[in-house]
Each structure stands twice: as C-alpha cells, then as structure tokens.
Amino acid sequence: MLIHHRHRWDVDYGQATALQRELSSLVVREDDFGVIHTVAGVDVGFPRARGQARAAVAVLNFPQLSMVAQSLACRPVSFPYIPGLLSFREIPAVLAALRRLDTRPDLILCDGQGWAHPRRFGFACHLGVLLDLPTIGVAKSRLLGSYAALPVEKGAWIPLFDQEERIGAVLCTRTGVSPLYVSVGHRISLETAIDYVLRCCTRYRLPETTRAAHRLASG
After folding, report:
1. Nearest-angstrom CA–CA distance, 139 and 134
2. Strands, DSSP E only, in 77-205?
3. CATH T-level topology, domain 13-218
4. 3-class SS letters over 87-100
5. What is the pLDDT of residues 128-186, one digit of tens each?
6. What pTM value is reported for the model?
C-alpha cells in the first residue's frame, strides 16, 4: 500500500495539532474517483494490558457487500488517548494491516470523524490523505457542531454546522434509531459520501464495512 504523504508519528500534542492544520489543506472535498468495486472498513481495538493496538481491515465487494479480503495487524501504542488526535494513536496499526492486503480498496469508510473535526482533519481525512484514497468519516457520536432537528426516517439527513460552515451531515440509516455523523474524508463530496454510507447499510444502523471490521478486530 503506497503512502503518499509521510510524517513522524513520535510527536507531542503541539506537533500533532500542527500536522493536522498543515495536512488539512490537502483534503479534496469533491468527487475524485472512478467506479467503486470494493469498499473497506477499518476498526482498531486495544486488548487489555497488552499496550498494543489491534487493527482490522475488511474489504467488501460493492454493491453486493460480500467479504473479499481481510487483514489484521498489531502495533505497540505510542500515543495517548486524546479526543481529536485519535488518528495518531490508531493509524500506524491500520497502515500495517492495509500493507498486508493484496487488493487496494476503492473506498474506505472509517469509524470516526473526517472533516467534522476542530482542525478539519479527523481520522478519515488523515488516512485518506496519507494513502491518497477516497475516504468517508462515519462516526457514531458527534465531536463538534450543531444541527436543527434530529432525522428519524431512514435516508433522511440534515447538515451539521460549525458556526457558519457545513462540516458534515447527521444521517438516519435506520428508522427510529440514533443517527450517524457523516463527513468528508478525502476525494469525495458530502452528498456522495452520504449516498455510499446509505448503500453500505442494510438492516443495521452501521455500514456493513464497519460491522465486518469490528467483528474481525474483536475475534
């Protein structure tokens, strides 16, 4: 898996936030990809008392959403848990898992934030810029931003704003359940990101990509 933008991972808080601000200028927030044949999910777990991150990547064909490839990798954890900087804690293990794949996914749905981030550089943006791959942030909870009313029917969504800027969407993927917070990662527009998230959700709140990666990481 080719890495297009490399940087050090042994950084402190100030260096990490500076890197986020610098690299956020590289995020492409419009559609810049061809036909999507495969979609991937990534998940990172932290086995107790091991001091390691266990990263899983599940690649599904699209639109069938059947598993075609999977990979696991463990790496020592070298960065503390700090909200807004989770990519520095988790991405090194994710990159290790991606390098073990024989196939390069066309689109990655990340279980976390993308543009909906204080420095506009959440996990999905970080991974997408490093790999120069289309990515989407699909978070289960809101990191920041406000919205007018909660959508309750599947397919309904409303914009998520940080002051005057639209930073993402609050999306209902199953009627009557809590929404997901979708934002651009890299090389995709928000409207297209919403469409792909919905097409990757079947009977459940979470996309099948996320569910498959979580099962793999927890196994």
Report:
1. 16
2. 107-110, 135-139, 157-162, 165-171, 180-186
3. archaeoglobus fulgidus dsm 4304 fold (3.30.2170)
4. HHHHHHHHHHHHHC
5. 999 999 999 999 999 999 999 887 899 999 999 999 999 999 999 999 899 999 999 99
6. 0.95
